[in-house]
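Hi again,

Forgot to attach this to my earlier email, sorry! This is the prediction with zinc ion bound. I've pasted everything inline since the attachment limit keeps bouncing my files.
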Amino acid sequence: MKNFFIAPSILSADCSKLGQDVADVLRAGGDIIHFDVMDNHYVPNLTFGPMVLKSLRKYGIQAPIDVHLMVNCVDNLIPLFAKAGADFITFHPESSKNIIGTLSLIKQCGCKAGLAINPNTSLNILSDFMDHLDIILLMSVMPGFSGQKFILPVLRKIDYVRKKINEVNAKILLEVDGGINVNNIANVACAGADIFVIGSCIFQSNNYKYTIDMIKKKLNALHKK
Ligand code: DX5
Ligand code: ZN
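Structure tokens for the complex follow:
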């Protein structure tokens, strides 16, 4: 049976009580914490640094933390996030002058490494790096903000990448980020995603457990088909 992972994105969490909110969403059934890092250059928004990640670990958060770098200069930040307690680090190919070097740096720091691909970026870029990737993150909204609508043509990209992964390296996890909710998660899963990044749909709901249960119900129904 295929494993699906729910990755609540803290971009939509209540930052005034971040530790508590993250603990709550994990207790409600979240599997991985998605940690969006923005520098106000690569994207027009500014979010969290390594200090915040370290604070979550200090608070007692033990779940895997998935750092999504949406910044211009990635290499300096990677050792800092790894030391702070990251498990996965993904970056956008435009942000690195030496993509293999950056992927190796992430692994040397003890983390799983991934490339994040924007909705308008061609998938051709992936072919040179398949042997070096633990994760492929496909953006299904333009990076920068939560609460956007899922860009439907990305479903075809998910399907294409799933097939490529199955052809060459079935161990790569396929992560999809943006605009996922209870109503469209089954389509994203059918297209081939393993990890579902979900921000506003979970954090803006009144009851995290109810929402995550609904999401998991949709995924379990696929297993029964
Ligand atoms: C957007 C971020 C996403 C965002 C998703 O740049 O990478 O992780 O938090 O939020 P929703 O699920 O609200 O689209
Ligand atoms: Zn993200």
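The domain at 5-223 is CATH 3.20.20.70 (TIM Barrel). The first helix runs from residue 18 to 27.

That should be everything now.

G.
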